[in-house]
Specification:
Elements lengths: L26 H10 L11 H14 L4 E5 L2 H12 L4 E6 L3 H4 L4 H4 L4 E5 L8 H4 L13 E8 L10 H13 L3 E6 L2 H8 L14 E5 L9 E5 L8 H7 L8 H11 L3 H20 L6 E2 L7 E5 L2 H8 L5 E4 L4 E5 L6 H15 L2
Parallel strand pairs: 2-3, 2-4, 4-5, 5-6
Antiparallel strand pairs: 1-7, 6-7, 8-9, 9-11, 10-11
């Protein structure tokens, strides 16, 4: 017999440590979506919610910024980088960068960009590391370096300080290049650093950033935020041709309103970060498990025996980060509880004791 209505097909109490994308929608965001529903609003961004989003982003980053809501993080990164480069341009990034290792080649295939990658010990670029590729600007045989892209927090869970971002921006700008920031976990970085977000973005010299919401309680929504409008070209046209222009944009924009209106975005991120600290503290007490990077946001990168990982994966889903080395990644989310963490630690102890 065919279903006559939507049915719940999962356990709403189940939690995993594979990705903060596994988490659902925060109730306040869901309520905001319902609030924005009903009646007609002009499509393609000419709605009251998207207009108000511009005001909210100006409050965070300063007057004159421009926010372009999009569907997902890959789209935000590709559009932002395209707006900063010429057809012959290249982007310098860490070899662990999401744009290089986890976006299916989209920046290069869809964005038409060349990525120059640099190995880093901690996922972070420095002026010295940038200089490994910041040369040959007039060499027609080489894609021209035009942008440096950093991630905050990085793909290995580390953080750039405001001074580190500022030093990078000054160096990049002296070379005639622009600085892009992938902020898929911008909230986690802001909460962990304990400073206003503009301190390590607009005030530090970032030109364009991707503002992530999906990993932090949204149903689905990101934004390209232009901090330096003089440095970009035709972003609204790039959004359309990249298939990231939402017709019913009010439903993307209102999610940001719910998260930003009273600091919810930081409270959710702070909770996820705290759960990661709780998990890390427990992991450090278990023999045979090594934490690979400082735990500064909501991710933990660890190394343990393959067999123990595979057994544990059957009980709590997560991913190998580097399967050959035995490295794994554990992510905490806005809805991770202390009981979730403690249950995971108990399972880890059991598997390591076999």
């Amino acid at each position: 017999m065919a279903d006559t209505a939507a049915q719940r097909r999962h356990d709403p109490d189940a939690r995993q440590f594979a990705s903060d994308n596994y988490a659902g929608v925060h109730p306040e965001v869901m309520a905001a979506l319902a609030l924005a529903n009903g009646g007609h609003q002009v499509s393609y961004g000419e709605d009251a919610y998207t207009e108000h989003l511009q005001t909210m982003m100006a409050g965070l980053f300063g007057a004159g910024v421009e926010a372009y809501p999009v569907f997902n993080g890959t789209g935000a990164n590709v559009i932002g980088l395209q707006a900063l480069t010429d057809r012959w341009g290249a982007v310098i990034c860490a070899d662990t960068a999401h744009i290089h290792s986890d976006e299916g080649g989209a920046p290069e295939r869809m964005g038409g960009l060349k990525l120059h990658t640099v190995a880093t010990p901690d996922g972070k670029l420095t002026p010295e590391l940038v200089d490994r590729h910041a040369w040959g600007f007039e060499d027609e045989h080489r894609a021209m370096p035009q942008v440096v892209s950093i991630t905050q927090s990085t793909e290995v869970g580390t953080l750039y300080t405001p001074d580190e971002v500022r030093a990078l921006a000054e160096h990049v700008h002296e070379l005639g290049m622009r600085l892009h920031l992938d902020g898929a976990r911008l909230a986690n970085a802001t909460a962990a650093l304990g400073v206003p977000v503009r301190e390590f973005t607009s005030d530090a010299g970032v030109d364009v950033l991707s503002f992530g919401a999906t990993k932090n309680g949204a149903l689905g929504g990101e934004a390209v935020v232009v901090l330096n409008p003089d440095g970009v070209s035709h972003l609204k046209h790039l959004r359309k041709l990249s298939m990231q222009l939402a017709s019913k944009m009010r439903f993307v924009s209102v999610q940001f309103e719910a998260l930003l209106a009273d600091g919810l975005w930081l409270r959710l991120a702070d909770h996820a970060n705290a759960m990661a600290q709780r998990l890390a503290a427990g992991v450090r007490e278990i023999d045979g498990v090594e934490i690979l990077h400082p735990v500064q946001a909501n991710g933990i990168f660890a190394r343990l025996p393959h067999d123990a990982s595979r057994r544990l994966m059957k009980r709590h889903r997560f991913y190998f980060w580097d399967e050959a080395a035995g490295d794994v990644r554990w992510m905490c989310s806005f809805d991770t509880t202390e009981d979730d963490v403690d249950a995971f630690l108990a399972a880890l102890r059991e598997e390591m004791g076999r």
